[in-house]
Design goal:
heterodimer, A: 245 residues, alpha+beta, five-stranded antiparallel sheet, 45% strand, B: 2 domains, six-stranded mixed sheet, 11 helices
Chain lengths: 245, 374
């Protein structure tokens, strides 16, 4: 039996984070809270979502349990819930997820978890640079880069953190020095990434949310968002692109 | 390659015949537009006159002959309401020919009109009156969506496609204002691209969830002074459509070959493609193929249009030729370089010129995957 209550904003954030990459996923209701992760079919990006038990208004599970969820569907439903309104998720039997808010009750059929693409192992990555930045600033930089190129270079050195995009005739540079960044370790790193994916990831965040970037050289990047006032943690891991010679 | 631009039928003021069924909705003057039921002045099974899905094995001359012999009776109509709307709406329901009688004000002029999106249109004249004289029964799914007035047009298109209704039939239903919640006539040109776009978007939702192909697949089709090439790369979904117009073709009256490409990434596009309707027809045929093999790929699709291909015949040509190409054999390669070398043997433009213009070739093979790092 699962019976949990959270705000509409938390549910929307969790489902939006996952649908950026896949339409179906497993949700694990663990003692420590809700966990979900998935990799996109092309194996380019991974999403890891955690909502600690304390972030829920009510968190009742009689044992740890995994359910398979049509995330597209639940995301769609969550769009009609106001951010601050409470929403109750419950699973009584193996087949149905009930979503209750206000006077509305949705019943969504669950998916057999074994029918969903296997969950990825989380790669252990040694990433030298750590950058903490306001997610809203990052989002603006990606939106600007998107106008001129389909890929961007993230660069970190002693001078600060840079995002560069180069088009056929124009280029754009976003630069923040150590003093402008919330936290920065000055580590040296440089990798190139697809703007398409980054743009999709940014949709979960807004200004005021904290983003921690772990960057390496020609290595996957870890983007860790702290959302809904720290109630929800969403991490994306994105494989790099090879830079043209 | 063209016969004279001249209809092959003699036309009277009173026209009686079997409409395939066919009609045309103009776009000039929107929302006051021309609505033209169309028919050849013969009775019998005329289905093939307006069914591009049946044209991929015919010489273009034959298709043009069908089109020249269709007579259009013009009415002017408001897209939101008029009696003519009911007539074309009824015509749009059927997938079998319907006997129709049209009284024209005068005998039509013997000209044919061409468009880059629409199939060519035959002679036309203002009409006084139109009457449907026989009524076959419409396919059940068509009847269902027609009477379901709270089903959104996009959902209706996807439903009909899933039920095996031909793309050209769905386009007619949309154009006649037979789909959606707030129904109105949709100019034929817009309806054709709207259906290609909507249906392919839906197919791609599924394609993006499939595994990638394992090797490079190359398809080649040469047909009617056109060369079609597709390179499917083992990478996540993205799409490019390229056209190379040689001198002495419809869109190129200069002395040099003009090459243009447009593309979209994994998550699709939000702006209208600069290559217009053909882009969406090509994307539909490609999405159909990938969905059929239950795989995803980066699809680079190019077309070379050689001298002498001088008439715009409509985007059906791209859709049906690519469907034909994807239905045929392909050659597999381990690397993009080998695939491009093979294409060099078929392309008259040359691979170098294509690679220079292409966005996706530059990107192909550059995206690494996570399991390389686990």
């Amino acid at each position: 039996m699962i019976d949990v209550i959270m705000t509409g904003e938390v549910l929307k954030t969790v489902t939006r984070a996952v649908v950026a990459l896949v339409s179906e996923a497993r949700m694990h209701f663990l003692e420590k809270g809700l966990h979900s992760r998935a990799v996109d079919p092309a194996n380019v990006a991974m999403v890891i979502v955690d909502v600690p038990r304390d972030s829920f208004e009510v968190y009742n599970i009689d044992e740890e349990k995994t359910v398979g969820v049509d995330m597209d569907r639940v995301f769609d439903i969550s769009k009609s819930i106001s951010a601050k309104d409470l929403v109750e998720l419950s699973v009584q039997d193996e087949s149905t997820l009930r979503i209750k808010f206000g006077s509305v009750e949705y019943k969504v059929a669950l998916i057999d978890p074994s029918a969903i693409r296997k969950e990825p192992k989380i790669p252990e990555l040694e990433l030298p640079a750590k950058i903490v930045i306001d997610a809203g600033e990052f989002k603006k930089a990606i939106a600007a880069a998107d106008k001129i190129s389909d890929h961007v270079v993230f660069k970190s050195d002693r001078d600060g953190f840079k995002i560069e995009a180069r088009g056929d005739v124009d280029s754009i540079m976003f630069q923040m020095s150590e003093t402008e960044l919330i936290e920065f370790n000055g580590g040296e790193a440089r990798s190139m990434f697809s703007v398409d994916y980054l743009k999709e990831f940014c949709k979960v965040a807004g200004s005021g949310d904290l983003l921690t970037i772990h960057l390496g050289t020609n290595y996957p990047v870890r983007l860790v968002f702290e959302l809904v006032g720290g109630k929800t943690r969403v991490e994306y891991i994105l494989a790099p692109r090879i830079e043209a010679e | 390659m063209l016969p004279a631009f001249r209809p092959s039928v003699q036309v009277e003021k009173n026209v009686f015949g079997s409409s395939p069924p066919s009609f045309f909705v103009g776009r000039y003057g929107y929302p006051k537009v021309r609505v033209c039921p169309a028919l050849p002045p013969i009775t019998g099974d005329t289905t093939i006159y307006d069914r591009p899905e049946m044209w991929n094995t015919l010489p273009i001359e034959k298709v043009l002959e069908f089109r020249y012999s269709m007579i259009l009776g013009q009415f002017s109509a408001d897209v939101r309401r008029s009696r003519e709307v009911e007539v074309v709406q009824e015509l749009s329901l059927y997938d079998k020919p319907v006997d129709v009688e049209i009284n024209l004000v005068r005998t039509p002029r013997q000209i044919t009109s061409f468009d880059d999106v629409l199939p060519p249109l035959g002679p036309s004249a203002p009409a006084k009156d139109v009457r449907i004289c026989s009524t076959p029964s419409p396919p059940r799914p068509v009847e269902r969506v027609f009477y379901e007035t709270d089903l959104k047009a996009a959902d209706a298109m996807v439903y009909l496609y899933g039920k095996g209704i031909a793309i050209s039939h769905i386009q007619k239903l949309l154009s006649a204002g037979g789909l959606g919640v707030r129904r109105k006539l949709v100019p034929t040109r817009w309806a054709i691209t709207a259906v290609d776009d909507t249906v392919s978007k839906q197919l791609l939702e599924e394609v993006r969830q499939h595994d990638t192909i394992d090797q490079y697949r190359v398809f080649v089709l040469k047909e009617a002074r056109n060369l079609f090439i597709a390179i499917l790369c083992p990478s996540q979904w993205s799409f490019e459509w390229g056209e190379a117009w040689y001198p002495d073709t419809t869109w190129n009256r200069t002395k040099r070959v003009g090459v243009l490409t447009d593309s979209e990434g994994f998550f699709g596009r939000t702006t209208y493609a600069k290559l217009g309707g053909c882009y969406y027809s090509a994307r539909l045929a490609t999405a159909e193929y990938l969905n059929h093999i239950k795989r995803q790929a980066m699809a680079i699709v190019w077309r070379e249009i050689y001298p002498g291909f001088k008439i715009p015949i409509g985007v059906w040509f791209v859709r049906e030729m690519l469907r034909k190409m994807y239905g045929g054999d392909y050659t597999e390669f381990d690397t993009l370089e080998e695939a491009l070398k093979y294409i060099g043997e078929h392309s008259s433009l040359g691979v170098e010129r294509w690679v220079k213009t292409s966005n996706l070739v530059k990107a192909a093979g550059r995206q690494r995957t996570l399991w390389e790092f686990v």
